Amino acid sequence: MGAFLDKPKMEKYNSHGEGNNLRYGLSSMQGWRVEMEDAHTAVIGLSHGLDLWSFFAVYDGHAGSQVAKYCCEHLLEHITSNSDFQSALQDDPCVDSVKNGIRTGFLQIDEHMRTISEKKHGVDRSGSTAVGVMISPSHIYFINCGDSRGLLSRGGTVHFFTQDHKPSNPLEKERIQNAGGSVMIQRVNGSLAVSRALGDFDYKCVHGKGPTEQLVSPEPEVYAIERSEGEDEFIILACDGIWDVMANEELCDFVRSRLEVTDDLEKVSNEIVDTCLYKGSRDNMSVVLVCFPGAPKVSSEAVKREAELDKYLEARVEEIIKKHGDEGVPDLVHVMRTLASESIPNLPPGGELASKRSVIEAVYNKLIPYRSDDTIYCHLPTQSSSKFTENGQRENMRTSFSR
Predict the structure, then answer these.
(1) Hey, what domains does the chain have and what are their CATH numbers?
(2) How far apart are CA 216 and CA 209, in angstroms?
(3) 379 pLDDT more than 60
(4) How far apart are the C-alpha atoms of 398 and 169, rounded to whole Å?
(5) What is the C-alpha to C-alpha distance for residues 314 and 125, in angstroms, rounded to an integer?
(6) How far apart are CA 262 and CA 297, in angstroms?
(7) E strands along 185-242, which residues?
(8) Which of these, 79, 36, 35, lies nearest to 57 by C-alpha position?
(9) How far is CA 201 from the centre of its chain?
(10) Fewer CB in a 10 Å sphere around the end CB: N or C, the chain?
(11) What is the spatial distance between Cα 382 and Cα 238, in angstroms, rounded to a whole number?
(12) In what helix (H) or strand (E) does residue 358 lie, and over which residues does it extend?
């Protein structure tokens, strides 16, 4: 079972950059987990003569952070230096050959990590999902191995998103069973919640089966999408701690609304992880936001609406506290639940009231600075009983296990 803290760790790691006509911001937060097992990569301008190419990825580790950390430092080099990838770049880059080179890089690093683990007598049993994008001047290559997810917003809607690799997926289940395993409680052998990952070598030791035929496969799915200069808006890469509480369209709508009030991509990324925490995510959370020139721009009307909303919420919090009067000082959970029962206009789409938790909390603490509330991180009850599938659809929450 996964271990959790008494209170979430909300300190964040942030980074941002720009180049190749791209801008990016990222945020990662430990949250409720006792250990931070996520990692990420963000590189604009690649080696081996790929100055106009860029690479971004999120790695969601489990059973330790070793594999995720190693991949964030070395996966890109395994991809760009292998002979399959290099041969694809001769003359005019061939899309299918680039895709094949990316797959080769994944298989190579997985075998390399296995060798390292065996030399250490198998002490490392950690694993990691990986979701990334390699952006060339002409194409976007989405890369997915596991249940982290990436998506592309184009022309104001979700144009593409990767498919999560879950043990219950028919093709994944067939491979697992052919390798002598089983799928119980939606998990490989009743234990691991993902069917593809790097590392996890305890699930990759079936004799007579190749690396992509094991209980857990290191093979990524790679999708090539031709770029659309006028319509491409942004890419979101995130671990399942984000997708557990936000559907694809919800997150895209939320990001669009945030880009209309700020061009600070670190700030937008921080708002994503904070909102997901307040929506009830109990996992580590990491998100990389990559913006194209066609991304939404700051709008004076949107900025005005945002300021009016914040002012309204501040006034309502004060009214709720005063209305309590002789009944005593209400706790923050009572304030949040009261606001949740009201129809509040112009809340950020996708984020809704949870995305304004920091505003509400700030005015509450200003008015009642002495109040110590151990339930301060409790999320709204209307958002605690659901999660979202790989298709971004809501489903009932199952029993929570660690990976």
Answers:
(1) 4-291 (3.60.40.10), 300-372 (1.10.10.430)
(2) 11
(3) no
(4) 16
(5) 49
(6) 8
(7) 187-188, 198-199, 221-226, 232-238
(8) 79
(9) 24
(10) N
(11) 23
(12) helix 357-367
